[in-house]
Amino acid sequence: MRYCIVGGGILGLALARLIVRDEPGADVVVLEKEHAVALHQTGRNSGVVHAGLYYEPGSLKARLCRRGMGLLQAYCAERGIAYEECGKVVVATEEGELERLGRIHERAVANGVPDVAMVDRSRLRELEPHAAGIAALHSPRTAIVDFAAVARALAGEIGAAGGEVRLGAEVARVVDEPHARPRAELADGMRVEADAIVVCAGLHADRLARASGQPADPRIVPFRGEYWALKPDRTALVRGLIYPVPDPALPFLGVHLTKRIDGAVLVGPNAVLALAREGYRRRDLAFADTADALRWGGTWRVFGRYWRTGAAELTRSASRHAFVHAARRYVPELTADDVVPARAGVRAQAVGADGRLVDDFRLASSGRVAWVRNAPSPAATSSLAIAEELLERVRLSRTAPAPSTSG
After folding, report:
1. Distance between CA atoms of 103 and 219, rounded to whole angstroms?
2. E strands along 132-239, which residues?
3. Which of 82, 220, 237, 391 is most buried by a 10 A CB count?
4. CATH 3.30.1490 fits 219-351, yes or no
5. Are 117 and 141 in contact (CB under 8 A)?
6. Burial readout 27-49 (b: 16 or more C-beta within 10 A, e: otherwise)
7. In what order do the strands lie in the sheet with 171-175?
């Protein structure tokens, strides 16, 4: 049995590692367009291992986050990768946020998040002495890790087991025709045939799907998340993770303060439209990527629905003082002089034609090809569990006949 996996982020690598572990003798190749693994979403995030507080009970996010967290913790212990349960507080700073905070608590309990509890102002101060709020939700099991280190360990296991991680291999489209093995066609004209193909293309998930005859909906719209970092002499302001109460209408969690596994503390991110799918700097512009986003009707519907939020995000992007002001609501001692620029990331956010931000993971199958169409946070936390889900779907499709048409 030969498997081809498109994408060398943590999700594609987790799937390849699962296959070489569970199916000895399987032929596995991972195709990654970059010169190294984990260069995009996997390596450009805050490193938070989410416990499952926010997600709709019964959703893929809720189920796979909880399972994935346990698998990830065990994997890190097995491989000697630093993993720290530093804990997290979601802080309410005014009475109007208490009802929303209570609903998050209810979801967390329904999702089986261990040891999660509401705490009062006094207990919040014990947990985070520099945080200000009238109440908070405390998740002591929320953790931090270096997801790029996890990805590199996964890649090493794949190679040690006889699998291949092929770098510099950009896939242009995937073809699944009757009476032939499905194949990945590379930009350089090469072809890779396999019995099953799984596409974990992240920021390019929709583009590769459309080139392969799959539905255009949902479309990936890239949002750049910008960060600042506390200066080393100010990292003592934060012991773990300090979050605001999020807006339930948005899949973003707001500007927060995040301890990293290396001891640094990040402030952010915001969420602004990126003008390139891999646009980590404000000046990065890819005309094809920008046109792709602006031609999609769903993008304009998002703008129309959330223009006030978008304006606030742009203000924070343009002003360090405005950015830090958002975090000062719950860490009042923080000042604009306490931070220095940190590197940004880009979130691959799926947007429907109706302008809705796709919240849950979106996995799809067509013949002998499986597609990951939406895998934002907590996908890194959930990666080992998403791999199980994908492999099960691939196994179920092994005996299915190839479709006569794609889409």
Report:
1. 30
2. 135-139, 143-145, 164-167, 171-175, 183-186, 191-193, 196-199, 219-230
3. 220
4. no
5. no
6. bbbbbbbeeebbbbbbbbbbbbb
7. 171-175, 183-186, 191-193
Distance between CA atoms of 126 and 56, rounded to whole angstroms?
A: 30
- Tell the residue number behind the tokens 């949902």, with chain if given: 218
pLDDT digits (tens, 9 = 90+) for 52-108: 999 999 999 999 999 999 999 999 999 999 999 999 999 999 999 999 999 999 999
Q: What is the CATH number of domain 2-43+148-218+360-397?
A: 3.50.50.60
Q: pLDDT value at position 155? A: 98
Residue 44 CA, distance from chain mean position: 10
Q: Where are the beta strands (DSSP E) in 95-194?
A: 117-120, 135-139, 143-145, 164-167, 171-175, 183-186, 191-193
For residue 345, the SS3 value is: strand
Q: 355 and 300 in contact (C-beta within 8 Å)?
A: yes
Residue ranges of domains in the chain: 2-43+148-218+360-397, 219-351
